[in-house]
Amino acid sequence: MAKSSRLFSLDIFRGLTVAFMIIVNTPGSWKFVYAPLQHSTWNGCTPTDMVFPCFLFIVGISIWFSLGKYDHQITGGSLFRIFRRVAAIFALGLFLNIFPYFDRNYSTLRIMGVLQRIALAYGLGALICLAIRRNYIWVVTGSLLLLYWGIMVLFGGSDPFSLETNFALKCDLRILGEKHLYQGFGIAFDPEGLLSTIPAICTVLLGFLTGEMVGKGSPNGVTLIKLLLFAAGSTGLGLLWNLFFPINKPLWSSSYVLYTAGIAIAIFSFFYLITDIFKFQKWGIFLDVLGTNALFAYFISVLWAESLILIRIQSGIEKITLYNWFYEKVCAPVAGNLNGSLLFAIIQLMIVWGITLILYRKKVFVRF
What we know:
Oligomer: single chain
Strand order of the largest sheet: 1-2
Number of strands: 2
């Protein structure tokens, strides 16, 4: 499939996001991880907490360019494209939740996940972008963020933003059921749940508005200034809202949406300046390789990591996973526990990059 015309800065940003996503998802040992490569315990925002919203923000920018062929209108072609991608990406997410235990007890299968949220936020965000006049997308975005805040406050009890009592959890428990939620918080709670997908849609919408800004404008200083003002305004509003609705990734709080979108716009603006205004692009080839097959790279990275965990080899008197063996016998002895854990993650990134490089050279770009 031929590569479509697109902003080089967009692929660079997408590639950086996927690279960081792979690094934070595959440390050699979860006991030895640098603080910036860990999620916030609850409230707050670390560099790692920026990865997912940056990806959804990029999805929003991509919607502007990918649906331009339909003149950003609802047509049979645009609807088919949207629903096909939603179904494909959601199905891939479910596959990753199941893999490699296909004979598992499906009554405890987690329904949601990263790809599932991407699918729903993309699909609903794209429909809004096509159905609503562009001048009103700002209004829709603000209204959804206020609505989510209001729902969380009204129905969250005396401590509406806590892990145990937040209304997003109550919705997921009622609709999906406790056994189908993520269990990594000590209780059943899904950070990619259904209700919190509402503000995630807003992250996509803010990306779409950014895409319109650069898509209609020329790569020059005027467009760059608009982007930076947008970034400053969004970040500032997010910090202000944080006083009332804490910045929180698991809840995907409204303040988190604005704060992370502002930072995402600033990062994108830097790449836009370097690669699209100054036309200095050769430095970014490494990230472009990942960025042009981003979802495929993420999908392969999860399959690869799960495969390393599945394979068990002899180590002394016991068998351990190939994942643990490679960290303990190769990376940790070379670089120590902490740096070895990071080295392990970088090696996993390079393996995935090598696979996508083969596709890149053959001009194969996987589109889900």
